[in-house]
Design brief:
Dna Ligase, domain 1, D-amino Acid Aminotransferase, Chain A, domain 1, binds adenosine-5'-diphosphate, alpha+beta, binds magnesium ion, Rossmann fold, 22% strand, 36% helix, five-stranded antiparallel beta sheet
């Protein structure tokens, strides 16, 4: 019996295009004998639409990315899940209007064997959405409410990992190593002078919006003169920012997989071409060097593995993650930079590469994610509610 695999791609964040590449790769890789695919695109304005036909056409061609749901929407090559492009599928779930994806998935997920023609066929959603409104617990919450199994971390872990301020506080509480930082809400900016930042962290510092990704809104600030403009930029993306001491060293990453027990891959190393690993380096020029496995000793590998699993535990991240480190070679050693809940799945992405190098090829990775999603959903269904 084929599993009904529903892939969500596109999305409202700045990483929309990356998601289009990730989704194409997953579609090309998964075994169609095992999975019945349905592809749902989310436009940059938040409309959900069925893009299965166009996505499968693209996968059969030599395209390098799925067409953006925006383009398919414009060209009438998608089937809207709602009658107005301004509304999301959430409205429809709440209104319980006839058939829409949510109610359909929900029915499939909760149907008793008598009600469905293919009782064994489970439904699993694979959200291949990066950044806010996809990787941050929002979509996960929607799926949780609908009772549908989904791949990747749950609501709390996704939200905690996405918010850099929250994540740092939790890592600190768990006693895990990280760069020194200051967390600042918009209403507190008047309280922070360049002199204070210099006294607390020294120069240079990194200024980052708390909730973003893909290096968007991030600046490396070399001196007090540039602090204000960096804060202004970061506050364009979120109402909270993190100011962090700049670490000079290497950037190492490791894959995490499993439920309920986590395990790690071999580490990889990113070698940015510029001042830091910025958006251009990640997605535009693609010129950053990626070494898999990273050229580090066994002791560093073991320490990365231990810290990555502890970081996921502290943030309540389960099933899948890529944990990124800054490695201060002449100092404190491994410092946790961030935990990513839905890492890239493009051909050049670190996550599938570190797993391939650890004996888990792309297709098996998806099988594992699906299988974990179903086990987690079944476990959760058995919890007592206290009612
Ligand atoms: N404290 C730091 N010291 C040195 N480099 C940093 C620091 N923080 C971020 N960077 C650089 O900026 C990049 C993006 O920052 P990161 O916190 O990973 O944000 P994002 O969530 O956008 O990926 C990192 O990959 C790294 O190159
Ligand atoms: Mg990063």
């Amino acid at each position: 019996m084929r599993t009904r695999l529903r892939i969500l791609y596109g999305g409202r964040s700045a990483e929309h295009e990356v998601s289009c590449v990730s989704a194409l790769n997953v579609i090309r890789t998964v075994d169609r004998e095992r999975y019945e695919l349905r592809i749902v695109g989310i436009t940059t304005s938040g409309a959900w639409c069925d893009t299965t036909a166009a996505a499968l056409d693209a996968a059969a061609s030599d395209a390098e990315a799925l067409p953006s749901p925006d383009v398919l929407w414009e060209a009438n090559r998608s089937v809207p899940l709602s009658s107005s492009s301004k509304r999301s599928v959430l409205d429809f779930t709440l209104e319980e209007q006839g058939t829409n994806f949510m109610t359909e998935w929900q029915a499939e997920a909760t149907a008793s064997p008598k009600q469905t023609e293919s009782p064994e066929a489970p439904t699993v959603v694979l959200p291949l959405l990066h950044g806010p409104m996809g990787e941050d617990g929002t979509v996960q919450g929607l799926l949780e409410l609908a009772g549908v199994a989904y791949c990747g971390p749950g609501v709390a872990g996704s939200a905690a990992a996405m918010d850099k301020g929250l994540a740092k506080a939790l890592l600190k509480a768990a006693g895990l190593p990280q760069a020194r930082y200051v967390y600042l809400r918009e209403e507190q900016t008047g309280d922070t002078t360049p002199g204070e930042v210099e006294a607390t962290l020294g120069w240079p510092v990194f200024v980052k919006p708390a909730n973003m990704g893909s290096s968007i809104g991030i600046s490396k600030v070399m001196s007090g003169d540039a602090l204000q403009s960096a804060l202004t930029l970061a506050f364009r993306y979120d109402s909270a920012v993190v100011i962090e001491e700049a670490i000079s060293g290497r950037e190492l990453e490791i894959g995490v997989l499993g439920w309920p027990e986590l395990r790690t891959s071999v580490p990889g190393e990113v070698r940015p071409t510029g001042e830091f690993y910025d958006y251009n380096d990640k997605y535009v020029s693609g010129t950053a060097g990626l070494d898999v496995p990273a050229d580090v000793g066994g002791d560093v590998c073991a320490e990365m593995s231990r810290l990555a699993i502890e970081a996921c535990g502290a943030l309540r991240v389960d099933c899948m993650a890529r944990v990124d480190f800054l490695y201060e070679t002449d100092g404190r050693g491994l410092l946790i930079n961030e935990v990513n809940c839905i890492p890239g799945f493009t051909p050049i992405s670190m996550f599938p590469r570190v797993w391939a190098a650890s004996g888990v090829p792309y297709a098996v990775l998806v099988d594992e994610l699906v299988e974990m999603a179903l086990r987690r959903r079944d476990r959760r269904a058995r919890f007592e509610t206290g009612r």
